[in-house]
Amino acid sequence: MSDLEQIGELTQFFQSSEQAHFARSWTVDDVERLRNPGPTEEYPLSNRQARKLRKALDSNSRNGSTSFTYGAADPIMAHEMGEAGFDTLYVSGANATLADVPTFDCGGDLADYTYDTLPRKVKQLVQNQLHWARVDKVRTHIGNLKGSKKGIDRLVPIIADGDSGHGNSTATMKMVKLFLDAGVAAIHLDDLLSGEKNFSAGSLTHVVVPVSEHIRRLSAAKLQLDICGSHVVLVGRTDSESASRITSTIDARDRPFILGRTNVDIPSLNQFLQGSKTTGVSRLQEEGEWELQAYLKTLDEAVKGSCTPDEFKEWTSKSVNLNVSDALLLATKMNMSVIWDAEGCRNERGWYRYNGGIEAAISRSIAYAAHSDMVWSCAPGYKRDSVVRYEKEVHRAVPGKWLGYNWSFGDFSKDTDDNIAKLVRDVGSLGYVWQFNPQAGFYAQGIAMHDFAKAVYKDHMVPYVRSIQDGEKKEVSVIDWYEEAGDLVDYMTDIVSLNP
Ligand SMILES: C[C@](O)(C(=O)O)[C@H](CC(=O)O)C(=O)O
Ligand SMILES: [Mg+2]
């Protein structure tokens, strides 16, 4: 295809209903220039999966339905989920890093692994899906496919964890290419500071980057998708609901959530912490003690408290698009004497104090909407009020935007089964098209292995024999894998052995 033909096609692609909402800072000519000479680097399998996913999410959006899934940590889990009827699979960074990283060093979910970790996992699962799709074809041909296995779509679309893009724009672009090569259908990128994901002291240590920085990440991913002519679904995730730190105050959109101290008669936080030997939760307590005396406020609250209502009105209208330092300077120029200091709230790593919560998540998700197909605020726990609010506000600003929801951190142990069963349907009916529980399968696998390991240790072959009998009754795939995969292998070796 000639360059001009490619550009013609790209223009159509950019203007299609699926793509037109993206705010691109590049043109079709830019993309054409960045493409390989000769054939475009395309990933047909990933595109096919992405289109399938788009169809499912679009149908959910129209019908008020939802796709629920959980993290598929290995090929057997993914296979069983496909047989059970799931229409999406999640591939979780947390699952992968706890059990399977290319550098062999497993650990907690710190997103400190190499950027090929999740693409490799996706590739493993997709290759397994393809394998079983071929087995089914051959078994259908030779009449061996069981009734219960007929009509199963082995290629369930995969939504994968891209964390914070693993570094700069080009690292994100390289990671996206690996995902495409693996056959992914969707990728999520979060607005945490790369390399600083931290669970050691709870959610209070979450550090976000400015809105503009995350938009840059999403744009890097989108540019790579355009270069590859990709339909992959880009999910703009925010962790601002549980963040308490931000790397920079540069973006005016972050102004409502940046806190400064209004008491400057105490040492700055950095001075206060100097020489401190506390870590983790104790460090947070120490910071909390300082905050009790610092009288933290947003700049707008501080200005409001130091001028007349008319002055505040004037300042508010003149400072609409100003970040905290420009807006503070404006207040000084307007002869207001505002005492507000964000610098003094920086901790020893230099991060500013951020007032995370559902308001921040809503505002960020709206900002990310023009740069993603779906937005998702990573919920630190289920709160129905927040779920309702988020949907209402995001959809008021961006009607019909696909919304995601995670069921990761809640405790529902005291709820009745009926109530628990209603949760996902309820959130679906509120307008969330995709929901997932990253850890459910991983935990279930661990619990099953816990029981099995103890039983086999004690009774040797008995639990094995009984569990196989039970599995056979239920036609659990893995028990027949030798035989089923054997049909594929036999078919191949038989045809090469025939006399031509
Ligand atoms: C969803 C998530 O990105 C994951 O990797 O599964 C994690 C979940 C977790 O660490 O429990 C996250 O929420 O960051
Ligand atoms: Mg993750």
What is the CATH architecture term of the largest domain? Answer: Alpha-Beta Barrel
> How many extended strands?
13
Structural class comes to alpha/beta
Q: What sort of overall outline do the alpha carbons produce when their principal axes are compared?
A: globular
Distance linking N and C termini: 38 Å
Hetero compounds: alpha-methylisocitric acid, magnesium ion
Q: How much strand content do the residues show?
A: 5-15%
- Could you estimate the helical fraction of the residues in percent? 40-55%
What is the fold-level CATH name, i.e. the topology of the largest domain?
A: TIM Barrel
In CATH terms, the superfamily of the largest domain is: Phosphoenolpyruvate-binding domains
Rg estimate, integer Å: 26 Å
Low-confidence blocks of residues:
none
Q: Tell me the strand order in the biggest sheet.
A: 1-13-12-11-6-4-3-2
Mean pLDDT: 95
Q: What is the CATH C-level name of the largest domain? A: Alpha Beta
Count the domains. 2
Largest sheet: 8 strands, parallel
How many helices in DSSP terms? 19
Binding site for Mg(2+): 161
GO molecular function: isocitrate lyase activity; metal ion binding; methylisocitrate lyase activity
Family: Belongs to the isocitrate lyase/PEP mutase superfamily. Isocitrate lyase family.
Pfam families: ICL
